[in-house]
Design brief:
The complex is a heterodimer. By secondary structure, chain A is mainly alpha-helical. Chain A contains 12 helices and 9 strands. In chain A, the strands form 4 sheets. In chain A, strands 1-7-4 form a 3-stranded antiparallel sheet. In chain A, strands 2-3 form a two-stranded antiparallel sheet. In chain A, helix 5 (89-111) runs antiparallel to helix 8. Chain A is globular, with a radius of gyration of 22 Å. The chains are: A mainly alpha, B alpha+beta.
């Protein structure tokens, strides 16, 4: 890392730390009250700090980028997400999802090989919304090949787990399954009804959007990339946010470790302090090992080409195990909400669900 | 949606371990079928309450639980396992565990609430105190008829001792701060108990405290403390990660006086009695784990098509559910033969049934009979007649099944995530609740680490004391 980039990262970290501490109480309330969305003023402040736009152009000199040109932005995003994630994994996650969507959209637009589809109003009570005519499809062969078919169930089912929120700069739908398995769709804003947050296991306040289409109106959407092209553009976005994803995992692990250490240092049980017991030390070591692993993986993501998929799978599994150990070593206090450990446990499970299940990764 | 009826044949198909007993008319299979189908009907009835119970605030939860418990009274669940001579239905503990597994398939929290009540009764049973058993049974049946359950809780865990109190060896080193000081005519209870399941709801607490905190192994005792006794305070109800239908409370005892008659045991509760109780109660926790494992499997089965990769995962989930079920049934059978359950299913209950014909349970003559020192001596003799090896054997099975089933339940939750991806984290699927509920199983009733320690200690003892 060259000195200039180091300075920029240090500045980002300091700003993020200050921001997180300033909004800590507000962000904690989201969790305590199980609110569905982050406060709008927090997100507006993120916007004014420039955290919702491209992070590379203003902050990192082009010379510091690697040949692929993605590393500067990825490093800044990772640093930002880690610092915010330590105070509010929800905010860290929100930022990460936003940049994932933004990056994918940019990459897909650059490709400029998409097609536009106009669809009539769907039939009432129809489970499937098929697209009967491809009048405006520019590349018929691709369309036929992929068999453009819109599954209404997928729209409300799959899209709910994507990203966004009412405050997103662009309403995006990363609908891998919406049109076809590997298509990237951008919906026009009018299509999106009032977003409905879906209660989830962890990361309260993420504001996952449930996109619902009005069944009695016609609509149009842009297919920006289809098939392998969509996969390629998605991979560009994924690689950019991967270090940030690993950093967010590390933030949750760090919190879990700190809670565990504070508890075991002060707790007398079994004839001594908990941290003297070999079983407890084993669990603490496990958490520390996973933190080290995530650090190395993050550096590897930033320095080299993206790591093999099995490392991501390993990280997800290790994250689940480590947060599990963190909760277990608190005993009864672990499952009480006030301890904080149960939140790390839930958030870790929500985080592990991002970017597909392990089965999906193994499949790739 | 009504669940399909769990008749005798379906039960045998679901629980093949019972097949060898199928030709025994009116025996264990019929008993299990009756209890299991009762719990399935009860489960269907309480299903609308399950989500609200999980999301409710403390006061809302108390109202909802009131309704659920009244339903439990209508189904006569509280008198199911009480001896017939006491006016109960005399069902076997094996049948009860199958019933609780069925309930846990929908809500482990409710199963835990009923299981905690059973744990308190088990402590009374382990002391061989027939007089109190009879009194509690009478009260339970009477209140059940009125639709107001006489719920019990067990207060054992301490802020500074955690699970130490649940193992004989760790008890010696435990930093116990509570004490029941002997005073004129009774005992004065002081100290704090935490994570008391049902603590805020119970009509009476079974409080486990030493009479001399410097010698807990020798003086650990159990007391019945009615709700509202001066000096008992519910400090707070905990906000839990899972199993929210079973509220856990912190209780504080400020010089709470209990008369001598409310002390349940004569000798120490540590060692034999606790091993007996935990061997049985952990076997029941096994049933909750098996219920969750099964519930997760059924939820996923209805949501995915068994394509190639997913079929493998579904098969793994089914295997886990089956293994968990086999594990807890085995532990319950062991306990019915040589553990605490043998006292209720065979020894103590049989003695009571022989001495007291059914229908006389509430008569004055029976009360006088119960108060006879002879009967109590006989009951205590039956308890003490269980050999140390048998108790160790049953205890190790109970602890092992608790560890095994809780981990299998968690494993199925993880597999559900593999199957459904991020959808498995959505509350409307019911899967996050299973996940949270399962996570508690590895902690309460002795953490899994304490249970593993128990398995090793008991197995070492069994090997060393082998004839």
């Amino acid at each position: 890392m060259i000195p200039h980039e180091e300075t920029v990262l240090s500045l980002v970290q300091t700003t993020a730390k200050a921001f997180a501490l300033r909004h800590r109480a507000e962000l904690d309330t989201i969790e305590q009250r199980r609110q569905r969305f982050l406060p709008i003023d927090v997100l507006n402040e993120c916007r004014s700090l420039g955290w919702l736009d491209s992070l590379s152009e203003e902050t990192i000199d082009d010379n510091t980028k690697n040949p692929e040109g993605e590393n500067g932005e990825a490093a800044v995003l990772a640093a930002l997400v880690f610092e915010l994630g330590k105070v509010s994994p929800t905010l860290g996650s929100r930022l990460l999802c936003h940049h994932y969507a933004r990056r994918w959209l940019e990459a897909a637009r650059r490709n400029d090989n998409g097609l536009r589809v106009n669809a009539p109003a769907p039939e009432a009570n129809s489970d499937w919304l098929s697209v009967p005519a491809f009048d405006t499809v520019t590349d018929r062969s691709t369309a036929n090949e992929t068999g453009l078919r819109l599954d209404r169930e997928s729209l409300t089912g799959e899209l709910t787990m994507v990203v966004g929120g009412p405050e997103s700069t662009t309403v995006l739908a990363l609908a891998r399954h919406a049109v076809h398995e590997h298509a990237f769709v951008q919906f026009s804003r009018t299509l999106v009804s009032e977003p409905v947050a879906v209660a989830t296991l962890g990361l309260t306040g993420l504001g996952v959007v449930d996109l619902e289409m009005s069944p009695d109106s016609s609509f149009s959407f842009d297919v920006l990339a289809v098939g392998p092209k969509a996969l390629t553009t998605r991979n560009v976005a994924f690689q950019m946010v991967l270090p940030a994803y690993v950093a967010l995992c590390r933030a949750i692990l760090t919190n879990s470790e700190q809670t565990a250490i504070a508890y075991t240092n002060s707790r007398y049980q079994g004839g001594g302090y908990l941290n003297e017991l070999p079983e407890i030390q084993g669990k603490l070591q496990l958490i520390a090992r996973v933190i080290t692993f995530s650090q190395l993986l993050e550096q590897s993501c930033l320095r080299d080409s993206p790591p093999p998929v099995h490392l991501i799978v390993s990280l997800k599994q290790a994250l689940l195990q480590a947060t599990d150990a963190g909760l277990q070593l608190l005993g009864g206090a672990g499952y009480v909400v006030g301890s904080g450990q149960e939140r790390h446990w839930r958030d870790a499970r929500q985080l592990a669900a991002m970017f597909g299940s392990n089965l999906g990764h193994i499949g790739t | 949606v009504k669940s399909p009826a769990l008749d005798r044949e379906t039960l045998l198909a679901e629980y093949p371990i019972l097949v060898p007993y199928r030709h025994n008319p009116g025996g264990i299979v019929d008993d299990c079928a009756r209890v299991a189908s009762l719990f399935v009907r009860f489960r269907d009835e309480v299903t609308p309450f399950i989500r609200p119970l999980d999301d409710a605030t403390d006061s809302e939860r108390e109202t909802l639980l009131g309704k659920v418990l009244r339903l439990a009274c209508e189904y006569k669940i509280f008198s199911l396992a009480l001896p017939r001579s006491f006016g109960g239905q005399g069902c076997s503990m094996l049948a009860l565990s199958i019933g609780l597994e069925q309930l846990a398939q929908s809500c482990a929290g409710l199963a835990s609430l009923l299981g905690t009540h059973g744990l308190a009764l088990a402590i009374v049973g382990s002391t061989g105190n027939v007089r109190w058993l009879q009194q509690l049974a009478g009260r339970l049946i009477e209140d059940e008829r009125r639709g107001q359950p006489y719920l019990l809780s067990t207060a054992a865990t301490e802020p500074s001792a955690g699970s130490d109190i649940e193992d004989f060896e760790t008890l010696r080193r435990a930093r116990i701060e509570s004490q029941a000081t002997e005073v004129l005519g009774g005992y004065c209870l002081s100290g704090t108990k935490i994570y008391v399941s049902n603590g805020s709801l119970a009509s009476a607490h079974i409080v486990v405290m030493p009479t001399d905190r410097t010698r807990p192994q020798e003086t650990l005792s159990a007391f019945i403390v009615p709700k509202g006794q001066p000096g008992v305070h519910v400090v707070r109800t905990e906000h839990k990660l899972g199993q929210r239908a079973s509220p856990a409370a912190e209780l504080r005892f400020d010089d709470c006086f209990v008369p001598e008659t409310l002390r349940l045991n004569e000798s120490t509760l540590a060692g034999r009695s606790l091993d007996l109780v935990l061997g049985a109660s952990r076997s029941f926790v096994g049933a909750f784990g098996a219920g969750i494992a099964r519930g997760v499997y059924e939820t996923c089965r209805s949501r995915v098509d068994a394509s190639h990769g997913k079929a493998t995962l579904l098969a793994q989930m089914w295997q886990n559910a089956r293994t968990a079920r086999a594990s807890y049934l085995e532990a319950n059978i062991v306990n019915a033969q040589v553990g605490l359950v043998s006292l209720s299913d065979n020894g103590l209950a049989r003695l009571i049934d022989r001495l007291m014909p059914p229908g006389l349970a509430r008569s004055r003559a029976v009360e006088r009979l119960i108060n006879l020192p002879y009967l109590n001596e006989q009951a205590r003799r039956i308890v003490t007649s269980l050999s140390a090896r048998d108790i160790a054997f049953a205890s190790s099975y109970g602890s092992a099944t608790k560890v095994e089933t809780s981990e299998l339940a968690l494993r199925n939750c993880e597999l559900s995530f593999e199957l459904l991806g991020a959808k498995a984290t959505r509350e409307d699927t019911g899967l996050p609740k299973y996940w949270r509920d399962a996570r508690l199983l590895t902690i309460y009733e002795g953490t899994n680490d304490i249970c593993r320690l128990d398995v090793t200690n008991k197995q070492t003892y069994l090997n060393e004391s082998a004839p």
